[in-house]
User: Fold this.
Amino acid sequence: MSADLQWSIIRNNSAFIVRSLGTTLSRDPNNLSAKNSFKATSVVNKRIVGIKAAEKGVIMTTKSKGKLIETRMSRGSRRTMKAIKAATVGSFYRPDLSDAAMRKASVLLRSQKSKGAAKRRSRKPKN
Assistant:
């Protein structure tokens, strides 16, 4: 069955659909933008890119021959961004999802950073 036909069947009848304030969103785990759209859904597309949080770093999910392949990236934020860009744009896999994948990975990596303790400064009291 073609992807267009599958999308026309499930676009209004999916277990992942959430309707909120006039917009239709998706809870699909490999949907980077959370929008219910043909471009972003992982159910009907042959090639997908998904980013989720790991204990340390992120996990990038791709699809190859119908199987989901998860790649763990935990060696620093710059290296992770470079690897995501190489996997999407560099290998012509899904260059249209590159920006969304990098944004989501950036947010997840930033949230995993520990905030340092606030430094207390001692000042002389004013007279």
Q: What stands out?
A: The chain has a mean pLDDT of 90.
